Amino acid sequence: MTRIYLDHAATTPMAEEVIQTFTAEINEEYGNASSIHQTGRNARKKLDQSRIIFAKSIGAHETEITITSGGTEADNYAIFGTAYARENEGKHIITTQIEHHAVLHACEQLERAGFDVTYLPVNKEGIVEINDLKNSLRDDTILVSVMYANNEVGAIQPIQAIGELLKDHPAYFHTDAVQAYGSVEIDVNELHVDLLSVSSHKINGPKGIGFLYGRKGIMLKPLFYGGQQERKRRAGTENIPAVVAFAKAVELKQANIQKSVTDYVQLKQAFLKQLESNGVQFTVNGSKENVLPHVLNISIPTTDVETFLVQLDLAGIDASSGSACTAGSIDPSHVLVAMYGENTPELRNSVRFSFGINNSEQQVIEAANKISKIILG
């Protein structure tokens, strides 16, 4: 049975050109970019070239890019780095109820350390209201962290409007763009963003590599202590093969971003049309307009998410839920709780499908037919 992978929001397969680049670099590049000899200088050159590619993709300068081990470290560096660099100015942080746990758990840890965190609600489309943020701002607010787009329902947040609001406020503005990067065009200067997190494995690059953009002049306290890599911001010998492969993934995404948006919207529409044609009853969770092209979260009234995901797996379909299953019990998606409230049906019958480079229209129609058979019997 050939499996149909519809979980690209969780992680993506490496693109063939990225695999070739990664393999070649592993075989050829072993130098330490901090070494002064020729082998080290070769590694440094590739690191610098990759950093330029990362910066260009978001309208930044290469000196504003810090290489990290992925999105989680980038989020943690932005949050803890800001908190401990600016705690003498204030201890108030604003975020949202629908953030990735890399942000939420970091904020919860800061609360235990004496910081005050405001968790903004969202509407039923999963979008933050600007007035809620405006009313939450205080003189001692040092950081606002709002994700660019939600990983569970794909809702795109009003990042530019938030950036405009914060232009005259001293708080740093961080956005977790891990899910959005590669699916929307980003310019940090137009958005007035101070900090932005990106991860390679969401855009068909290798796992374990990412970057944090930090606007010039932003002061962050490092998370790691050791060498003086990354302009003393992130100690540790850089993983040059992964960095170069990540850069190749970025180049591929940037060159095809408009086409991929069109392709994924068409796949989503074909999938939904086939479910409708088969008589499946469902509703789409989240915004129908301000949404990532590759993410689709649907509520199916006649299903239970735990059982349904097992049935999908047995049918050869990879999908996911924001719910966490532990020891036979379910911990509802914090995103859907924020959108709909507690004890609502959507918490137990919603599934996320997400599309990517290896999906075809024939595939998603086949998946929709298998899903319909599971639901309708």
From TrEMBL:
Sorted UniProt keywords: Iron, Iron-sulfur, Metal-binding, Pyridoxal phosphate, Transferase
Cofactor(s) the record lists: pyridoxal 5'-phosphate
Domain of life: Bacteria
Gene Ontology molecular function: cysteine desulfurase activity; iron-sulfur cluster binding; metal ion binding
Top EC group: transferase
Residues in Aminotransferase class V domain copies: 4-364
EC number: 2.8.1.7
Pfam families found in the cross-reference section: Aminotran_5
Catalytic activity: (sulfur carrier)-H + L-cysteine = (sulfur carrier)-SH + L-alanine
PROSITE patterns attached to this UniProt entry: AA_TRANSFER_CLASS_5
InterPro entries attached to this UniProt entry: Aminotrans_V_dom, Aminotrans_V_PyrdxlP_BS, Cysteine_dSase, PyrdxlP-dep_Trfase, PyrdxlP-dep_Trfase_major, PyrdxlP-dep_Trfase_small
Annotated coiled-coil segments of the chain: none
Gene3D superfamilies xrefs: 1.10.260.50, Aspartate Aminotransferase, domain 1, Type I PLP-dependent aspartate aminotransferase-like (Major domain)
UniProt record similarity statement: Belongs to the class-V pyridoxal-phosphate-dependent aminotransferase family. NifS/IscS subfamily.
Protein name: cysteine desulfurase
Organism field: Psychrobacillus soli
